[in-house]
Amino acid sequence: MATPLVLAFFMVVIAVMAVDHPPTSAPSLVTYIFGDSLAEVGNNNYLQYSLARSDFPYYGIDYTDAKPTGRFTNGRTIGDILSEKLGSTSPPPYLSLNPHDDAIMKGVNYASGGAGILNDTGLYFIQRMTFDDQIDYFENTTKVIKAKIGEQAGTRLLNEAVYFIGMGSNDYINNYLQPFLLDSQQYTPEEFLGLLNLKLAEQFTRLYLLGARKIVFHGLGPLGCIPSQRAKSKTHQCLRHVNEWVLQFNTKVQKLMNLLNLKLKNAQLTFADTYNDVLDMVDNPSKYGFKVSNTSCCKVDTTIGGLCLSNANVCKNRREYVFWDAFHPTDAANAVLADRFFSKMFTTPNSSKAIAPNHNG
To answer: Which CDD domains match (predicted)?
Structure first.
């Protein structure tokens, strides 16, 4: 339900800030996360009727106490691993908190498996928090923050926070690429892309009006190469046309963000492109210590969703697989990707530019 590396760039941002603020000082970075199943840390556990959930075995089999937490992998997410390296913790899921909890001023994760840019994406999951839903919850958060610390201080906190968005995968995987759904019948690929871009512009602008200034949007990875899409190929190869649509999406969104940076005062919208990084891991798994990148460790049935159900067969050599289920990477793959990005933060010039403190609103 999401693309690999959805948290990578965001956690690099956190890492850079941690270098600037050693452990002896109080952390100053506040992060608000919006996204789908790769960014989720448990919101859907609180949605009683959601079919997009992972709070059952074998999810979490390699996590602490071997228990599922709502993360869509066998162990840790990229965010978990980088947080460990920095001695910090990831923001908690919004639905786990009391809406008036002081924790909301330190960061919140609104991500929800099955979520999309469009509100009709993922309808067959019954319950999920769409991007619009997540922004609605964030709006509630902004009101509580301002009630707690005052309008001026609240606005400053919101302006200086970092907003990470990993969204769009489900709009293809669980919407446009499903032939029985209306959008795939109603729109050409170009028209659908235009619809996504228009909706994103509205959502970015809404976040801006709520106080967000430093927004990082993670571009899509090669969706045509994830197991759920390979299963549609007679030769089990990557679907080229899907990857072409992804590249067009990334280009369109990057142009949109550049335009909004010009139009919205003090906006710092950053596009994080990791398409080629993910593709290299899929094309050259042995380069990263893996043996299998064209199918998943958990033997899933892609005809009924592709998640790792409790009655599924799970490989014993989980460290040799890039993918855990039909959509998500294994703990081992997340560890490799986290290490790569942790190293990148020390070598990428001006890597903290997008989150430089300012007080201009």
So the answer is: SGNH_plant_lipase_like (cd01837)
